[in-house]
C-alpha cells in the first residue's frame, strides 16, 4: 500500500512513521508513506499556502492552487482509491472504516491547518473527510498519523502475531476483555483461575462474557440491545 500525505509540516510526521510498527511495515515493503511538503507547490516566491478568508474574520484559509497542483501531479502518476481530508467536521473514524481503507492500494491524505481548506478543493478533489474525534487539533498531521497507524497495523504481515489484530477491541463490536501476565498474584490480586486452567473452551467463554460486561459498562452504545 502507498500513502501520500500532503502537509505544511512534514517534520511533525517524520518520527511516527520511523518507529515501531510503521517502521517495520515500511522495512518489509508492505507500506510506503511519502510526506509531501505543500510549500513545494506554492505558486508565489514566498511559498505561501494560505490567505485571508473572503467575508472577513479571523483565521487563514489554505489556498486552492497549491493543493490542486499537488494532487493533480500525484494523480497523473497513478490512480488513487481515496483522497482523504483530515478535518474535525469529517465523519468520525471507526474501526470498520479503517478495515476498509486497509484494503486499498493508493491513498492521499491531506492535512488541514488554520481555518481549513478552500471549500472548492473539498468539492473538486476530496472523496472522504475524516475526523478522529470531537475536539480540534492545531492541524491534521497528528490525526493523519493516527489514521496511518491504524491502517498500517492491519496490513497482512505487519504484526508478528498474524491473527492478533482480529481480536482487538472493536473488531467484533465489543471492547477487549481484561488481560493478565506474570506474576499470578500481584499486591493481593490474583489472576482469575479460569485463565490458569488450560481449559480452552472455558477461557474462550470467560473472555467473551467479560468483553460483553465491559462493553455494557463502558460503551453501551456499541451493543444493539
Ligand atoms: N484537524 C483538526 N482537528 C481534527 C480532528 N479532530 N480530526 C481530524 N483532523 C483534524
What does this structure look like?
With 225 residues, the protein is an alpha/beta fold. The chain has 2 domains: 151 residues, SPOUT methyltransferase, trefoil knot domain (Alpha/beta knot), CATH 3.40.1280.10; 54 residues, Trp Operon Repressor, Chain A (Orthogonal Bundle). Helix content is 35%, strand content 19%. Strand 8 and strand 9 form a beta hairpin. Helix 1 runs parallel beside helix 6. The longest helix is centred in the C-terminal third of the chain and has 19 residues. The protein is elongated. The two termini are 38 Å apart. The site of adenine has 12 residues, from strand 5.
> Poorly predicted ranges (pLDDT <50, ≥5 residues)?
none
The CATH class of the largest domain, by name, is Alpha Beta
The overall pLDDT average reads 94
* Estimated radius of gyration: 22 Å
According to CATH, the fold-level topology of the largest domain is: Alpha/beta knot
CATH architecture of the largest domain: 3-Layer(aba) Sandwich
What summary fits the major beta sheet? 5 strands, parallel
Distance between the termini: 38 Å
**Total of DSSP H or I helical runs spanning 4+ residues:** 8
**Outline:** elongated
* Ions and ligands: adenine
Oligomeric nature of the chains:
single chain
Percentage of residues assigned to helices:
25-40%
Strand content: 15-25%
Q: How many individual β-strands?
A: 9
**Topology order in helix (H) and strand (E) letters:** EHHEEEHEHEHEHEEHH
Total domains, how many?
2
For CATH, the homologous superfamily of the largest domain is named as SPOUT methyltransferase, trefoil knot domain
Strand order of the biggest β-sheet: 2-1-6-5-7
- Supply the helix-strand structural class: alpha/beta
